[in-house]
Amino acid sequence: xxxxxxxxxxxxxxxxxxxxxxxxxxxxxxxxxxxxxxxxxxxxxxxxxxxxxxxxxxxxxxxxxxxxxxxxxxxxxxxxxxxxxxxxxxxxxxxxxxxxxxxxxxxxxxxxxxxxxxxxxxxxxxxxxxxxxx
Length: 134
What we know:
This protein is mainly α. The protein contains four helices and two strands; from the N terminus they run αββααα.
């Protein structure tokens, strides 16, 4: 929800109305191939980065929920703590990314660490199951 609030706030400041998801700018003249890029400056740039951060979250969410679900069967409280840290780091990532492209780094690294810890929990659970069968 925090991620959606950041994206919605940036949408309001940039005056970009739904269903538009990003604002693009065309470079190059009619005599060149030209290219299209996302606007990076001002309120529109902030909106574009907030939307991209939101999409980054949506892209990784199914996998994160899946591994968290499996890890929480064997390690319920530690998995809960890690997913809470992940959620806070994702909000930090979104706010930082909306402000500047480099602002996403700290939150992103914490998110990667949380995912790795949850994957490790799944691996330990798998080893524990295999040890019982021997």
